[in-house]
Each structure stands twice: as C-alpha cells, then as structure tokens.
Write a structure and sequence with these properties.
The chain is an alpha+beta fold. Helix content is 33%, strand content 21%. It contains 3 helices and 5 strands; from the N terminus they run E-E-E-E-H-E-H-H.
Length: 122
C-alpha cells in the first residue's frame, strides 16, 4: 500500500456534524464525532454549540487539513484464491450428491427446489 500526502487544503470553513445530547441534569452536551475530546456541556443547546465553535476554532488554528491518497498494489479479493478448490475432490462431490438427495427428499414430492431456494430454506 502506497501512501502519499497531497497539498494541504486551504479552506476558510469546514462543515462538521455535531452530536447533541440532553444529559440527566438538564444540561446539553455537544461534540463532533471526529473529535470525541471536543465534548462541551452548557445550559442550552445554543450555548453548547457556541462553546463547541470556540473550542473547534481554537483547535483548528493549529491543524492543517491534508488529503491522504491510498493506492493498493493487490486489489484481488483473497477469497478468490479459494474458488474451485474442491472442483476435483471426489469426496466433496459424493457428499454434495448425498446432501442434495436428502434435501430433495425433505421437500414435498411434487416440489423441486433449486440451489438458490434451498439456501433460503436453510
């Protein structure tokens, strides 16, 4: 995996999604999910959000926002390595035949079930 930092983003504003909670004591807690340490409490929602804005402005004054680009060398799904692993296994074929025979016997005589339907029945 290759990591590369791009140029810092020069923004004058960022949008944050604020979590607001009413506490048992009647106070309001507000925080940004990305910064759990930013939690503030106040007597009202407006006061909590104002305190949170002040805290975030102070915090963001010392922070650069930089995009991080990730590139992966191996994009093949590791489960694909298992595809076809049992295709020449005689014992698996025998087990599979017995399984489907038993499955068909457990279904009503006039009903034929497909593989997809049997997986929904299981």
């Amino acid at each position: 995996m290759n990591l590369s930092l791009l140029e810092p983003i020069s923004t004058s504003s960022l949008t944050w999604y604020v979590l607001v909670e009413t506490l048992e004591q009647g106070q309001i807690a507000a925080w940004v999910a990305q910064f759990p340490e930013s939690k503030v409490t106040a007597e009202s929602q407006e006061a909590a959000i104002a305190a949170l804005k002040t805290l975030l402005n102070k915090h963001m004054a010392a922070i650069k926002v930089m995009p991080l680009q990730l590139s992966f060398q191996n994009s093949e799904d590791p489960w694909f390595q298992l595809c076809g692993i049992l295709k020449d296994d005689v014992s698996f074929a025998q087990w599979s035949d017995r399984f489907w025979t038993q499955k068909q016997e457990s279904i009503e005589d006039d009903e034929i079930i497909s593989v997809e339907e049997s997986l929904r029945v299981m």
